[in-house]
Structures are given as C-alpha cells and as structure tokens.
Amino acid sequence: MNLWESVYAFRHHGEVPPVTPPGPPAWAPTEDLLTNSRAIDLAPVADPDLAGDEPTDDTADEREYGDGQREHAREEIRRRGFEAIAFYASIHSYGADHCGIYFNERVFFGACADLAAELPAAPWDSIVKDMLVSLDYHEAFHAAVELFALVVEDFAFLRELDLESWRGENVQDLPEGAMRPDWKCPYDLYVRSDYVPSLATDDCLEEALATAIQLRAPMRTKGIRKALAKMADSAPAPYRAWRAHVKDIDFGVQSLAQRILSRSFRTSPVADVLLGSAIAQSQMRWFPDSRPSRLDTYGPIPRWIYRPDRVRPPRFGRAILGNIRLQEFLNGLQRSYDARLVSGGKHPAIVFPNGTKIPFPRQRTVPTYLINQVARALNVTRKEILSNCLAVRV
Known about the structure:
This protein has helices spanning 3-11, 30-35, 62-68, 70-80, 91-98, 105-118, 124-156, 186-195, 205-214, 224-233, 237-240, 249-264, 269-275, 292-295, 326-337, 368-378, 382-390, and strands spanning 37-39, 86-89, 100-104, 303-306, 340-342, 349-351, 357-359. By secondary structure, it is α+β, with helices and mostly antiparallel strands. Strands 1-4-3-2 form a four-stranded mixed sheet. The chain has a three-stranded antiparallel sheet with strand order 5-6-7, with helices on one face. The protein is globular and about 65 Å long.
C-alpha cells in the first residue's frame, strides 16, 4: 500500500489535484513534462552477474552527452539549485498517477560531467551512481515532509481531539466529529505560507535540510562530497544554507516539524497530544525516517526520468514496470507458473518446473530485463507474462 496515496485519498476524497507545482522548477509545460517522463528504477544499474535493461533504439554515449550539457547544467543549478536536476512532485499537486521523484536527464548528465571535470581520476560510472544516490536522498526528504503533514492531518481528525485548535470559524455550528467547512490542508498551508515564500532566502529550512542530507548520503567516489558541496554553494541561498544544519540535522528536522504544525494549528494542545512536548524539553516529535530505503516501505515512491531531448542515453531505458514492486511479480510467477524461489549464492533465484533457474536482484521494483528472461525461459511472450502475473496490458 502506498501511504501517501492512501491517506491523501481518504482525507481529500473527491478533490482534483491542480497538477501544477507550487514553485520551481519550471522544467516544461505540465503536458510536456508528463508526456516525456518514464518510470525508472534506481537500483544499482550495473551488475556483472545480471543483464542490464534493454537499450533504446536511439542511444547516446552518456559522457559525450553530458559534456555537451555542462554549461546548461551549471547555469540551471545556479538559478534553481538541485531542483534543476531532480524534484519531488507531491501527491497534493500531481495526484497519485504522476507524483514521485523526477530526474531531468539533460541537467543530470550535464551535472555529472561537471563533477567528472572536478574529479578527473574518478570513474564515470561511479560518479553517476553517487549522483543518483545523493539526489534520491535529497528528494526523498521532500517526500518525508509531505508524509509527515499527511499523518498529522490524518490523526488530527480523530473525534476526541479539539476542533477549536484548527484554523477557522463557526466550529460550534458543526455536528459532533464533523469536518469544518473552512478546513485547510496542513501541507498546503505550509507550502504556500512557508516553503514557497522562503525559496528566495536562506530561511527555506526544508531545502537547506534536504541539501545537508544529500551531502551525507552514502557515496563511494573519492572527493565527490567536496565537489557536490561546491555545486551546492553555487546554487541559490536555500541550498547554500546547508552548512548551518549539517552538524545537527535532527534538530533542524524537529524545527521544520514545528513550522508545519504552527501553520496548521491555532493553539498547541493538539500538537502536543499528537507529537509530544516542545523541542526545548528534548522530546522528539515523530518524523519519517527519510532514507529512501525506509521511505519506500511506505510506497515505494515512484521515480521518473524526464527526457527533454531526442537523445536517449541507455542508462534510463524505458521501463513501464519501474514503479511496480518486484515481490508482486514473484508472487505472480509462483501463482501462475508454479515457480519456486530459492536463496543462497550471491543472488536469490526463480526456479521453474522445467528446471530453468533465473537469478534476480534484491531491489524494490521489477527490472525490465527480468521480464524478458522469464518469457524466454517459459517459451511464452512478454505480453503473456505481464498479463498473467501483473494484469498489465501492453
């Protein structure tokens, strides 16, 4: 179950999201953005024991493509920060079908090429992987902010909580337990009254924290943190403010939680009931663990690649199953084809009644190549596999 979708649908039943971001980035008109974005999986993109995604018809060398986009990427990051490379599309703004983390392929590879110029001894593939990881940590924090606001909203509707604590008038005229007619969504209130107005200043706590978390993400390329910090320092004020929080991210997160609550509650009693005492008393308020692997247990969070150019480097080959859980596919194989799952060795494997054994990666979503391997092993079409196991029509 996707918790963002579940809570949003329950508390905003019948509402139609505007499908417009509340602020930057302005990558493209909404129709173009959605049309030219494809679902992707951010699991390790190269494994010597497992085949990769099928190449697209129109491919290009990543490094060459990135070198041609360096100036563009540098300028976009200077103007828009890391949201020029990737941004989180909230379910409040994009709805369940289009929410998630979007990566801009053109700016992404341009930024990777810029890092490669700073780190001439570093392998290209290592830079690309670490860039993906760091951006995923940054944008996952934005997803955690929205999840926090949704959970607050959900619990705040418990009938035993005092409706007088919510913004608005005429509470006495409502039936017991009813929603007030002037109810304001906590996430919307926070975004419009705090996040968007602060984007031009170093007071945008959410972006500063997201950048600090990004720079503490697990990365392996020697020197890449310093190079990313330099990139952050070239960005607008909210991103440059990461240094003020990197040594005490937990306190910053608690401060952000308090900001979100203060935008939604007139008085503090409900906030105290939901989330404990004040920061000064060292009582930690609940906030989601924003590490992507932990947040994905509530989702997973969809990931998308936005491809503004006709040039299509093969790393992000189209994958219509990019946001479907691998476990669903494995369950379907066991149900429809009497497959068994075996462990041991470097990778677990699927074993079919005909004796064919296919290893598969430990990741959250279905890799495209695995569908093709299974179809060949069973001597059936890919379309049949998708239909029988996942009810996907292609």
